[in-house]
């Protein structure tokens, strides 16, 4: 493997890569390019800085371990995750890049400390103040944002929900199993006070009241009706409203006999 370099404005720039494939050559240059490939909202970590930052008082870290050349759907989801959580106080997303070729940057650290080899990447671990030194491993989908956010919220990270509202989702499923006016009252309180700005919130209460009136069969009937409405000509505002309603109906459907089509 050899590189041909040129000098441009005082910087050494690789212009030719020979013998190794392009991906391998790029991997060997990652420490050189490092900061340029860091996702906005993510903190670059390595074997020298990991313990200095992770475990800091009052700061929770979600750390991704992956090849520097990581790409595909999971990389897009990671970028979305960083953007979605960037405003959460006391929470940071970290990234440990692992080099497969050349200097094997961070490879020994990741394998010795966490037991990951290259075939087990990407991997994510959550580190909380006062928690386990090695963190808690995330075992959900790497290609969808909502499972990530739900998992983080369940562990105390105050990230905003994705699409529907987790607290009202739980009440919707509870109501389908055990119709109770107290559930409607609590849902109404959340929808009108805590989540009054959400375009989804009011639909939870409306659907609960319809189920109370017509029974759980309403979920299937209304889902089919809304799907037909969406096939027609609607204003952009009406179309968005119906899509929001359909999303909430799908939450109710997950605990009923009816399972909507994807």
Automatic annotation (TrEMBL):
InterPro entries, sorted: ERp29, ERp29_C, ERp29_C_sf, ERp29_N, Thioredoxin-like_sf
Signal peptide: none
Pfam families per UniProt: ERp29 (PF07749), ERp29_N (PF07912)
A GO cellular-component term linked to this record: endoplasmic reticulum lumen
Keywords of this entry: Endoplasmic reticulum
A GO biological process held by the record: protein secretion
Domain ERp29 N-terminal stretches: 37-140
Every Endoplasmic reticulum resident protein 29 C-terminal domain range: 164-252
CDD domains cross-referenced by the UniProt entry: ERp29c (cd00238)
The protein's name: Thioredoxin domain-containing protein
